[in-house]
């Protein structure tokens, strides 16, 4: 039995690692699509696309996955993909926005609605929760190997045109107006910084504590949405009980 348990534990860890890797690939695929869609699908002429491709390589994303995401943006293969946003409430009254990239809106809408229903949440109309988020440009720079104090990093970020910065133990998070993201990104790269993230995202204005008796349902909703291949990003205001200080 001990041998079986050991195999079971190893298999469980492997499945968890595969799921985490899948989520990372899913987000990078979305970023590749958006970068190629917004600019030239040729990386030689698209700095943002080169940045995302570098991130894909660092995550050991297969070349076929990278090529497929770029092909979606350029319309190769005939399928037309659309960006769609869904809004709703998770258990405990937590606001959730779901950004999807799909070639079949009916399929995606049905799957997202089912995820909310299964978890005891509810899907709302457009605009029902988006007002609780601010659209911001986000640049992240990892602190590992970076010989910069928070004050120096902040000065460089402000000089580049950023609005604000937040420092954690792992990284510097630099916030910009969405229209200034490219300018700030290019300025920081010009100063020699290696960027881990440069994207437009949704930042919650406030956080909502998830009631302890709703935490399992809340996790189930996020897990089901994340497992959906059409879902590119999930923005939510929730704080789980074990996330609180």
What does this 3D model show about the protein?
One of its GO terms (biological process) is regulation of DNA-templated transcription. It comes from Limosilactobacillus panis DSM 6035. Keywords: Cytoplasm, DNA-binding, Transcription, Transcription regulation. Its main location: cytoplasm. With 245 residues, the chain is α+β, with helices and mostly antiparallel strands. The protein has three domains: 68 residues, Integrase, N-terminal zinc-binding domain (Arc Repressor Mutant, subunit A, Orthogonal Bundle); 70 residues, YebC, transcriptional regulation domain (Alpha-Beta Plaits, 2-Layer Sandwich), CATH 3.30.70; 73 residues, YebC, transcriptional regulation domain (Alpha-Beta Plaits, 2-Layer Sandwich). Helix content is 44%, strand content 24%. The chain has seven helices and ten strands. The strands form three sheets. Strands 3-1-2-9 form a four-stranded antiparallel β-sheet. Helix 1 packs parallel to helix 3.
- Count structural domains: 3
Q: Write out the CATH superfamily name of the largest domain.
A: YebC, transcriptional regulation domain
Strand line-up across the major sheet: 3-1-2-9
N-to-C SSE series? Answer: HHHEEHEEHEEHEEHEE
Fraction of residues in helix: 40-55%
What CATH architecture of the largest domain would you give?
Answer: 2-Layer Sandwich
By CATH, the topology of the largest domain is Alpha-Beta Plaits
Shape: globular
| Strand content bin | 15-25%
Largest sheet: 4 strands, antiparallel
What is the alpha-carbon Rg in Å? 19 Å
Question: What is the end-to-end distance?
Answer: 39 Å
Number of helices: 7
